[in-house]
Amino acid sequence: MKKLGLAVIGTSWITAAFLSAARECDAYEILAVYSRTLDKGQTFADANNIPKVYTDLDEMLKEDAIDVVYIASPNDMHYPQAKQAMLAGKDVIGEKPLVSTLREMEDLVRTSIVTGKFVVEAITLRHVPNLEIVKKALPRIGALKIIRADMSQFSSRYPALKEGKVTNVFDPHHSGGALYDIGIYPISLVVSLLGEPLNFTYTANLHENGVDLSGIFLLEYPDTKAVCSFTKDSYGPNFAVFEGDQGYLQIDGAPSRIGNVTLVTPQGKEELGVSQVENSMVYEAGVFANLFHTRDQAVYDTLTKHSLILARIMEDGRKHAGVRFVADTR
Ligand SMILES: NC(=O)c1ccc[n+]([C@@H]2O[C@H](COP(=O)([O-])OP(=O)(O)OC[C@H]3O[C@@H](n4cnc5c(N)ncnc54)[C@H](OP(=O)(O)O)[C@@H]3O)[C@@H](O)[C@H]2O)c1
After folding, report:
1. Do residues 13 and 68 share a domain?
2. Cα separation of 179 and 313, whole Å?
3. Atom 7 of ligand 1 has which residue's CA nearest to it?
4. Is residue 289, in this structure, part of any structural domain at all?
5. Is 88 in the same domain as 147?
6. For the chain, first and last CA: distance in Å?
7. Confidence of residue 151 (pLDDT cuts 50, 70, 90)
């Protein structure tokens, strides 16, 4: 299969990790990076073996050989950059969260229809093999009653915030905060398994600038209740547990990669998870490449529906918790 010409936006470690995943899955030809500054772009290109650097996004998007653009800029930039890339005829892989509001997501869906281009949200856990294992194993725990999914990631930038220095991840101008940064993972895990919740609510510890630093998101389904907690301002364990009337399934470690799956029933304990590659972005890079080749509308619609649900409940949830973004006003 012809390799897809790939360009990237963003020069931080996550773009380097995606490039390494793209190389590992062997479906992309890495062509270019966009950076706001030539020096930074060139340093990143040298370190990651990228042939071309652009400091003008329009110029980069004129390049015919580029089929796909991967976006890992601050959260608020994903939507305008994704739209710009699709209008220029490119498929898009947008880092999570793909959008700041439901309105943005709906506009991307419209743009996709008009341009015939795809835009997908890079949420690692959606594509790792162990998610399928969890799905298949769920009937073995009987009626699913409770899900608890926790993701705690004390931020290296939190001490600076306490000193008054606001970095992108804690900046309401950049749609920052705990929910959009890491809360999306446990919530996506729940939505991947149970779909759209009947009700949901979010309560959060807020910083004085209005962003959420940690919080608890409750999702209600007819027979199941799910509580997702996540922190950027404190330490805590990372895990997920699915509790049923015949046993439970446990994931130890970050819900974002589902590194293992254990089934515990009155009959005993069983390790179900398969061994996954270290860089879990390899799976999404492969799935997206396949989608961009096949143009499988059913697969695309499933991914889009998931992103629409996330966009809606995260926007409503954060507004309920009192978190406002500058993106809300544009
Ligand atoms: N999938 C995952 O596991 C994972 C992990 C981490 C992060 N992420 C996501 O990746 C995205 C980037 O996160 P990050 O922590 O790398 O963000 P970041 O360091 O704040 O910014 C990423 C890049 O965007 C550019 N940038 C920085 N500030 C900007 C501004 N004010 N306006 C426009 N561009 C700006 C910079 O590139 P130039 O200076 O070269 O232009 C920078 O390298 C986020 O959406 C985050 O949620 C995903």
Report:
1. yes
2. 11
3. 14
4. no
5. no
6. 41
7. very high
- Determine whether the shortest distance from the Cβ of 175 to ligand 1 is under 6 A: no
pLDDT digits (tens, 9 = 90+) for 33-75: 999 999 999 999 999 999 999 999 999 999 999 999 999 999 9
| Residue 33 Cα: closest atom of ligand 1 | 40
Distance 293 CA to ligand 1 centre (A): 27
Structural domain contains residue 140: yes
**110 assigned to some structural domain:** yes
Q: What is the pLDDT of residues 227-285, one digit of tens each?
A: 999 999 999 999 999 999 999 999 999 999 999 999 999 999 999 999 999 999 999 99
227 in contact with ligand 1, CB cutoff 6 A: no
Residues 114 and 242 grouped into a single domain: no
Q: Say yes or no: 63 and 183 in one domain.
A: no
Q: Which residue, of 123, 138, 159, is where some domain finishes?
A: 123
Q: Is 122 in the pocket of ligand 1 (CB under 6 A)?
A: yes
**Residue 178 has what pLDDT?**
98
Domain span at residue 81 reads: 4-123
Handedness of CA 82, 60, 167, 45 (dihedral sign): positive
- Res. 166: pLDDT tops 90: yes
Is residue 293 one of the residues assigned to a domain?
A: no
Residue 15 Cα, ligand 1 centroid: separation in angstroms?
Answer: 8
